[in-house]
Amino acid sequence: MANTQLLRDIPATVRTALAEDIGDGDITARLIPAEQQAKARVISREDAVICGVEWVNEVFRQVDDNVRVNWLVSDGDNVAANQALFELEGPARSLLTGERSALNFLQTLSATATISAYYASLVEGTGVKLLDTRKTIPGLRNAQKYAVTCGGCYNHRIGLYDAFLIKENHIMACGSIANAITTAKRNEPGKPVEVEVESFEELQQALDANADIVMLDNFDHAGLRLAVQKNKEHPTPAKLEASGGIDESTLRSIAETGVDYISIGLLTKDCKAVDLSMRFI
Question: Model pTM?
Fold first, then answer.
């Protein structure tokens, strides 16, 4: 999915964030005279990969379009501790009112980009693509998916609408892997069909039914290598994705088994917000 599609809901997302923070007015900012102008600088207190420029811009656009934002970095840039990220100039009240929402977006999305960049570095040179999952912060699905790409990883399906992921319960309800795949291709021709399997028997069924992608759930290293070999030997091979219980200690060795993809939920669900600070100057 193109980044422009992932960015399209920024105004609505920001509007919701501002509504929950400001409510019927920032009573603390009202302590400052309305005409008072100010300048501020935002720095990162730690090394990070930056993501969230357009969310910050939209926050101040909605709070007060008289605020000027001067960026010193771009999405995807690596920054060091104490490095300045952007500067603000405008009504003091507006700078303070928008501060927390702007930094919330920036610190959260930069965290996702930073951990994605770290994990991408662990598999560099293997040819495998690391994929995110749907384990995202509610309301920030597209934002985090975009942040993952800023860190050098890739998007799995965005939601329940753009690709099939047929799991155990789907298979049971449909009667078989073959029935589930056949129905999927008939219902939504052209959309990717992926099947999660837990055994070599299920892998064979998925390949025979022409699945586009097969997710190998909790296969050990030997099992992954054997699955890669069986897939190569099949007349209609699929793309193979490893999933389940993968962390930084096993990632590289799993990538070296020859699978095409590795999906990792922690890219979006286990990230720690980047420490940022805004000060008037």
Answer: 0.94
Q: Is 269 exposed, middle or buried (0-12, 13-18, 19+ CB in 10 A)?
A: middle
Q: Which residues contact 215 (CB under 8 A, 6 or more apart)?
A: 165, 194, 195, 196, 197, 241, 242, 243, 263
Token pair for 144: 């985090």
Q: Given the residues 77, 196, 202, 241, select the one marked as catalytic.
A: 196
Among the listed residues 39, 41, 61, 135, the single catalytic one is 135
Point out the catalytic residue in the list 188, 217, 260, 275.
Answer: 217
- 190-210: per-residue pLDDT in tens? 999 999 999 999 999 999 999
Cβ–Cβ < 8 Å for 48, 106: no
Residue partners of 250: CB distance under 8 A and separation at least 6: none
DSSP-derived secondary structure letter, 29: G
Q: Phi first, then psi: give them for residue 165, nearest 5 degrees.
A: -135, 100
